[in-house]
Amino acid sequence: MEIDQTLINSTEVAYISMEIALDSSIPTYSGGLGVLSGDTVRSAADLEIPMVALCLCYSSGYFYQLFNEMGEQKEKEIEWNFFYEFEKIPEPISIKIEDKEVFISAWLYRVIGQSGHVIPVYLLTTDVEGNEPWMKKMTGSLYDSTSRWNRIVQEMILGIGGVKLLKSLGYDNLKVYHLNEGHGSFAALELLKQNGGDMEKVKQKIVFTTHTPVPAGHDVFDYDLVKKVFLDRIPRNIKDLAGQNELNMTVLALNLSRYCNGVAKKHAEISRKMFPNYQIDHITNGVHLPFWVSKPMRKIFTKKWPNWRANPYVLQNSLELDDLDVFDAHIENKFNLISYQKGHSWNLLDEELITIGFARRFATYKRAVLIFRDIDRLGRICRGKIQFIFSGKAHPKDEMGKNYIKKIFESGQYLFDNYGVKVVLMENYNMDLSHMLVSGVDVWLNTPNRYREASGTSGMKAALNGVLNLSVLDGWWLEGYKMNDLAGWAIGPDDSDPNAAKNDWDIDANYIYELLEKQIIPAYMDHDTWIFRQKNAISLAAYFNTHRMVEEYAKKAYKLVKQRPWKFQG
């Protein structure tokens, strides 16, 4: 069944993202960017935002992760086929790559909000009849790192192909194209073409969100490669738009958008230093609460506030929750996690011990091995009291990230052999496992180099479920800890300290050990204190949610006039 033409005619916003996490089983995401995109679309559907979304279809996904007996990551390609939730659009469009015509089709997936409002998500694919075999593989793998040619071609398909596809489907009333990270910036070039090169007209249509303060996270392409794939189909002033030495996708987006934002207060500040000639606002990220809340927690929220899904601001009153209800819900989540873990790991965890979780991409700046800095001190502190679960993927070409995984495996063996401390490393981190981890551990650990984490959202999901954060003051936690310092603990100084950005490993590790020994273990032993802190953690969800975030985009970035059915009251 095709999308109703009335819905198409009323759609005003096109949301363009390289990855969108629709479901754990659909391989259209690799990590935080995709999960945020999925939460954004879900909240937009709940709030009846007139939106359509674009992503690529990846039949081979990112990769399936395995660990061998040495703790080394091994990658397997995902085999995945479309099923009944999807429909193929009837007529493909085409774009030129080098001197070849490449056909692009799309699978349609519907995200349905609480009131029944539909947001169509089109997953673009080159696996289309009429394309040569090598063309059909262009959209096969997420973040295809085989060559820079593959990467720029995928971004052409997303940006140029996406805009052309929407036009072919009759989305003629789009007022805003939201580029979620620089991957979709070629959409601006197609819009320039469609609008006769009128830059001001195009700028009024584009808003842009940057997601990383890490320089390597901003895609750049050599102009020889650009000339090779575009031939003469690139604007003559491209170097003025995208950078003189290399084509920088972020700079291209900044120059052709009327509104730009980072995803946390600190991230926007860092972004303004990275790109000093641009005005960059901030809209702090959130998570989609109904999607990420555990079933036991959902039950007690609904019992207390029947309308909490529509108005999550009521969670600011979390201290009103019954202590026994919160305790029982968390214990159920913890048992569910450990029961799952017992079937997927050789080392069996203990339900009675403090369980600390660390799960995210194993990029080196996230410092997953920081806690093992003084491994014998850690062993002495944790013996008989604390156990750990780690999970996450390293990029297949990130040897340092892979070494971190191996270091965790080896450290876990050492701690168990010498102190009886259990460290579990769980394979193939995905949304299903994330649901269990962010609700089932007792403490959520986050140790990035300061001012390298744009926002982070896993800690928000943990707080929603009454899990306490133990985190460096960066990204969202720099804001969250200032809102409520009973929701967890801060590792090291905040951004008022000029030495904070030095990221001294020994100093930060010492903070962790001191907190574990003098605050976290004593608090856990005091039943009432721990539950009081859990309820304070839940209160943060009143602000750190995508309903509030999408409402901010609707007002500040999209300039939508129509009053939405839900309104943030903070």
Topology of helices and strands:
Blueprint: H1 5-10, E1 13-17, H2 32-46, E2 51-56, E3 64-67, E4 73-76, E5 87-88, E6 93-97, E7 100-112, E8 118-125, H3 133-136, H4 148-168, E9 176-180, H5 186-194, H6 199-203, E10 206-209, E11 220-222, H7 223-230, H8 238-242, E12 246-248, H9 249-255, E13 259-262, H10 265-274, E14 281-282, H11 289-292, H12 295-304, H13 323-342, E15 354-359, H14 375-382, E16 386-391, H15 399-419, E17 423-426, H16 431-440, E18 443-446, H17 458-464, E19 468-472, H18 475-483, E20 488-491, H19 505-525, H20 527-539, H21 546-557
Parallel strand pairs: 1-2, 1-9, 2-8, 9-10, 10-13, 13-14, 15-16, 15-18, 16-17, 18-19, 19-20
Antiparallel strand pairs: 3-4, 5-7, 6-7, 7-8, 11-12
Helix pairs in contact: 2-21, 4-5, 12-13, 13-16, 14-15, 16-17
Write up this protein.
This protein has 570 residues and is α/β, with parallel strands linked by helices. It folds into two domains: 5-64 and 73-286 and 548-557, Glycogen Phosphorylase B (Rossmann fold, 3-Layer(aba) Sandwich); 308-544, Glycogen Phosphorylase B (Rossmann fold, 3-Layer(aba) Sandwich), CATH 3.40.50. 39% of the residues lie in helices and 17% in strands. Strands 1, 2, 5, 6, 7, 8, 9, 10, 13 and 14 form a ten-stranded mixed beta sheet that branches. A six-stranded parallel beta sheet has the order 17-16-15-18-19-20, sandwiched between helices. Strands 3-4 form a two-stranded antiparallel sheet. Helix 13 (323-342) packs across helix 16 (431-440). The radius of gyration is 24 Å and the shape is globular. The model is unreliable at 566-570 (pLDDT under 50).
